[in-house]
Amino acid sequence: MADAAVKAEGLTIPLIDFGKFLCGTADDKKETANQVLNGFQNAGFIYLKNTPITPSFRSHVFNTSAKFFKLPMDEKMSHAWTTPEANRGYSAPGREKVSVLKAITDVTQLRSSNPDLKETFEIGREGQEDMPNHWPKEEGETSGFKPTMLEFFSQCKALHVEVMRAIAVGMGIDEKYFDNFVDVGDNTLRLLHYPSVKKEVFKSNPGQVRAGEHTDYGSITLLFQDGRGGLQVKSPSGEFINATPIENTVVVNAGDLLARWSNDTINSTLHRVVEPPNGDVEEYPARYSIAYFCNPNTKAYIEAIPGTFAAEEEKKYSGINSGDYLVQRLTATY
Ligand SMILES: O=C(O)CCC(=O)C(=O)O
Ligand SMILES: [Fe+2]
């Protein structure tokens, strides 16, 4: 059994040694794969330690991200996010309101009441001619930004493939079953900055959050958080539970498309970012996190994974094109 990273109100999020999947004995590998799959089938969330992404590189990526957010607003706005199809660039605080509501009018109402207290910068697969990435100038504080982010993108892409292999092994299907579905790397690297905020802001607006409750859309999300706290995951009994940071772990959660792909045997669980837990301050410091949203290839056709249904009529969803699904979801969010 894996240790628990989080355990409260019927929510158990396992802390899994992923090194044992990558480099362990055959038994270690199978046992770890089972832990990964069980975590996604129950909490919808897992914590991974001992991934190939080193602590020193991770910290370099966080430092590089912070330098981008320190740029003047007009420079950041010159890289503004434009369309759901491209899903690249900078979003100023209040621009995106993630929400469980899908109607655009409702999202607009929500956005004007309690905007998310965050700014983000999104990077997609490099080299897509019709959707170029935005890159800050390779000079001054942001010199080295592009090679750092491209390297991180590619390390995360590789980790996605390995986590999908663990799911396959857990399911008892061919370890490489998902490889051809995820090899292109149609993923999104999102840098997040939650600016420092006075405690008073939360006190005077009980509904105020740093990021509203939502599920992610794709296959899995690799979430790298700093030590500030505030991430919460919804338990089966409906309570939001702190997903307390554990140094050098990667929080991984299943997204809606993986839930659908697994015929709802895997859970895509609601989560949000709220006022940090240690409230004995006048002002909370800034929080930084990085979400790497993994998706099946844009062109992949997604229908129930073998073994997640016994008979045709047990398939809960019709097949769908991955890219169409994601654009549809993103269109409702911005
Ligand atoms: O910042 C975090 O810890 C969570 C971010 C998140 O859930 C998202 O961007 O989808
Ligand atoms: Fe999320």
Automatic annotation (TrEMBL):
Residues in Fe2OG dioxygenase domain copies: 185-296
Highest taxon in the source lineage: Eukaryota
BP GO terms, sorted: small molecule biosynthetic process
Keywords: Iron, Metal-binding, Oxidoreductase
Keyword Endoplasmic reticulum applies: no
UniProt xrefs under PANTHER family: 2-OXOGLUTARATE (2OG) AND FE(II)-DEPENDENT OXYGENASE SUPERFAMILY PROTEIN-RELATED
Similarity comment: family membership: Belongs to the iron/ascorbate-dependent oxidoreductase family.
Protein name per Swiss-Prot or TrEMBL: Clavaminate synthase-like protein
Gene Ontology molecular-function annotations: metal ion binding; oxidoreductase activity
Keyword presence, Cell membrane: no
InterPro entries the record matches: DIOX_N (IPR026992), IPNS-like_FE2OG_OXY (IPR044861), IPNS-like_sf (IPR027443), Iron_ascorbate_oxido_reductase (IPR050231), Oxoglu/Fe-dep_dioxygenase_dom (IPR005123)
PROSITE patterns, per database record: FE2OG_OXY (PS51471)
